[in-house]
Specification:
The chain is an all-alpha fold. It is built from six helices and no strands. Helix 5 runs antiparallel to helix 6. Bound molecules: protoporphyrin IX containing FE. Protoporphyrin IX containing FE binds at residues 34, 37, 45, 49, 52-53, 56, 69-70, 75-76, 81, 85-86, 89, 114, 117, 121.
Length: 123
């Protein structure tokens, strides 16, 4: 029988998304090149961004959360995110998914979503 559950459910729901984004953000901040985006930012601002990332992912994967943050293009415009940054980001997503045991189909669905917003993030 085909799995008709939402991607949100297949990923493991809210707690799984929190675990995923916690690990991912830690990796991004520790990355030699990407770390610059989080340098000198207060813990409160980073916590707010983390919550918005959770809400965003929960929303776009079919959970019942409302995303109240800004659009991807607006919130990343002018950051100077280049293609190496993007590739590193995607590698960290893959590594985090591997560490947390995200299924192959679910990982591919997440990567497909990222690909669909790439042009907005790099605008
Ligand atoms: C190399 C890629 C990326 C970098 C370097 C990056 C960096 C950042 C930074 C520094 C912020 C904080 C902006 C601020 O507080 O003013 C932010 C916000 C955010 N990012 Fe990213 N980001 C990247 C890709 C993505 C992707 C792929 C997603 C979605 C899956 C995403 C989702 C968000 C969300 C939801 C916010 C909060 C928006 C808001 O404040 O309203 N980001 N990002």
């Amino acid at each position: 029988m085909p799995d008709t559950r939402s991607l949100y459910e297949r990923l493991g729901g809210y707690d799984a998304i929190v675990a995923f984004t916690t690990a991912l953000l830690g990796r991004l901040q520790a990355d030699d090149k990407l770390g610059r985006f989080w340098e000198n930012r207060g813990a409160d601002g980073v916590a707010r961004e983390h919550q918005l990332l959770i809400d965003y992912l929960a929303n776009v994967t079919g959970g019942h959360m409302v995303y109240t943050g800004r659009e991807m293009r607006t919130s990343h415009k002018g950051m100077g995110i280049d293609s190496e940054d993007w590739d590193r980001f995607v590698q960290h997503v893959g590594a985090t998914a591997g560490e947390l045991g995200v299924g192959e189909a679910e990982g591919a669905d997440v990567l497909a979503h990222l690909d669909s917003i790439k042009a907005d993030i790099m605008a």
